[in-house]
Amino acid sequence: xxxxxxxxxxxxxxxxxxxxxxxxxxxxxxxxxxxxxxxxxxxxxxxxxxxxxxxxxxxxxxxxxxxxxxxxxxxxxxxxxxxxxxxxxxxxxxxxxxxxxxxxxxxxxxxxxxxxxxxxxxxxxxxxxxxxxxxxxxxxxxxxxx
Length: 146
Prior knowledge:
By secondary structure, the protein is an alpha+beta fold. It contains 5 helices and 8 strands.
């Protein structure tokens, strides 16, 4: 995918829609493209948050584990949702600076743009509108969960 294609894709995601084009180009340039195989874990509940992901293609399941071993996916794990193309996942742990509250596992092959913690924080600092969008996004997610 070309840089301009990634910018166009990011522009179509509400979280990034208000960011000026030059900053979106910089964001797209600094992202890593990462592909996960079906069954592979993108991140685990309890892990330190080091990145957020934009799903380009494929589907992933969102799991929450109760009990003493949140890092182990097993009978104490419950599927609480799915994420597909254009979904932004893992950003709430970056914003709260807390360990991940869920596990994300690929159902199919999943292609992503990986945005590092530092890049995401710089984006929030330099673009006040993006912070507002993140808060709206997380608020909407909380409302749907309850």
